[in-house]
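Example record

One chain of 168 residues, shown exactly as stored in the release files.
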Amino acid sequence: MTKYADLPYRLSTGVMLINRKGLVFIGRRLGGPEHVDATHTWQMPQGGLDDGEDPFEGAKRELYEETNVRSVQMLAESSGWLAYDLPSKVGKSAWRGKYRGQKQKWFAFRFTGDDGEIDVKHPGGGKHKPEFLEWRWERMERLPKLIIPFKRDVYLQVVKEFSRFAAP
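Predicted structure tokens for this chain:
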């Protein structure tokens, strides 16, 4: 049996969706194995890459599947892949215990549509199961305090890399 620390990372992507005012989209998760407390339920859109999928294309797909948003302009890509480990207790149930965490490529997108395009209750044109209960625009510097603690270092790095797009 493979030791937990020797398990691979699940390849995934994340999106920092930034509106014209420099605020960032966050959604309150409906649940899932990664969310282990009731306090840290807010996060940016993110999700696993399909086999062989380009991270940029995966980011656009995940954004649409979770928020219904297609009106975006790419601003930046993270300089590298960012990884986090799940606590072992969580990791044994998440993704059927195949991964110890995620290795993510992050993208900053400018939201060029209007708020009416965002539909977390019927994402992906109503073809995808909702992952967020509600959403809001938030100041970028507040994001690391809202995310589940084991993802905090990734969020700190994403905020650092994309801070030039934040609200003044």
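Notes: The two ends are 51 Å apart (CA to CA).
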